[in-house]
Amino acid sequence: MWAFIHKMGSPPWFFRFATAVIRWLLPIVLLALLAGSLWGLLYAPPDFRQGNSYRIIFIHVPSAVVALAGYYVMASAGLVSLVWKIKMADTAMRAVAPIGAALTFVALVTGAIWGKPTWGAWWVWDARITSMLILFFLYLGVMALFEAYDNKAAAAKACAVLSLVGTVNIPIIYKSVDWWYSLHQPASIKFSGETAIDASMLYPLLLMIAAFYGLFALLVLLNMRSELLATHRQSAWLRTELG
Amino acid sequence: MHPIRKQRLTIALLVVLLSSAAVGLVGYALRGNINLFYPPADIVAGKAPMDRPIRVGGMVVEGSIVRSGQDLTTHFDVTDYDGTVRVSYTGILPDLFAEGEGVVASGRLSADGSFSATEVLAKHDENYMPPEVAEALEGKGPDNRPYGKGGKS
Predict the structure, then answer these.
(1) B12, B20 contact by CB (below 8 A)
(2) CB contact under 8 A, A126 and B36
(3) For A19-50, what is each residue's pLDDT tens digit?
(4) Rounded to 5°, angle at Cα B127 from B126 and B132
């Protein structure tokens, strides 16, 4: 276990690891996304209240869930970078930020598109929606902060602190619908007790959530791999790696 | 663990802890403003301000919707089962607005305790099911569902 974690910090080893994982993860993720979309958009039944407009859930919920989880990935990389000063953790933090921002953006936009016909408004300054907007700005902030420094180590330190401070927002987003009166409905998928979503809609949703986790992992690895290609383009190990 | 790393780890965890505490206190102090709406019970108890626009949220009481014959004005009662507020609204209601369903109305309180809304939003609940399942549940009686009545409005 520790040997594996130590190896993750070595650029040549990680480059080989990422290349191998991407090769088998890519077809699995594409297949899962295709299957989940067809299942959710074509075969799942319409909702008794919303008809077909509820189907945006199959994009909205997976992107929101992975946007939240991705923030913890970024913050964990930030903690490792701050404490152990491992360069690979900086690379990981930098790779997650734009993907998390994109997922948060997708969740906000699909939510607005669903909100107009369902609630009657594109946007409401509701606790859930506002905290999600703050998450989007946190991701953008980490991206901008990386570019704001000439010194890479200083940039990584600043970004690590920002992403660690931002973790407070994640439980707020998650619990916002329970803590305050909000327009956004509470979670349909519950870890305890009866789920409020019918099994015929739940299974394609779970498949899409799994597919989005896979997509996130795939995109982060691709991002980290291209960052390694850019920073180590003069290195001998990369030349032998690429043949 | 190396003492310097241990120190850095402690500082990082303290940063997370203290910033969480700060945000938590701010959220606690502003909790009244973070709530999107007042429940009818608070309005009945006189806790809602009269002088500025507010929102009220709850369930539309079954059988309370009265539509005007002349214009788009609608009257309905909103309840949280502890209190009830009469709401009047002129305009187009959202598609999912129905008796027994959630609603959030923004507007002003009148001196007589009624609420004149300038905007009415439907609050959707977390229940998703196919129409056949909803009908089957409906057949068993109105009390089998967690919230309200499925809308054939």
Answers:
(1) no
(2) yes
(3) 999 999 999 999 999 999 999 999 999 888 88
(4) 160
pLDDT digits (tens, 9 = 90+) for B51-61: 889 999 999 99
Contact B130 A167 (CB under 8 A): no
Residue B6 near residue B22 (C-beta atoms within 8 A): no
> B6 to each of A84, B1, B14, B57, how far by Cα in Å?
10, 6, 12, 50
Q: How far is A117 from chain B (nearest CA, A)?
A: 7
Q: Is residue A9 part of a domain?
A: no
Number of separate domains in chain A: 1
ipTM of the complex: 0.80
Tell me which residue range forms the domain holding A37: 14-46+55-242
Helical ranges in A85-126 per DSSP H: 87-118
Chain B closest-CA separation from residue A122 CA (Å):
11
Residues of A in contact with B104 (CB under 8 A): 119, 183
pLDDT confidence band for B150 (50 / 70 / 90): very low
B43 Cβ under 8 Å from any chain A Cβ? no
Enter the pTM of the model.
0.89
Nearest Cα of chain B lies from the Cα of A238 at a distance, in angstroms, of 31
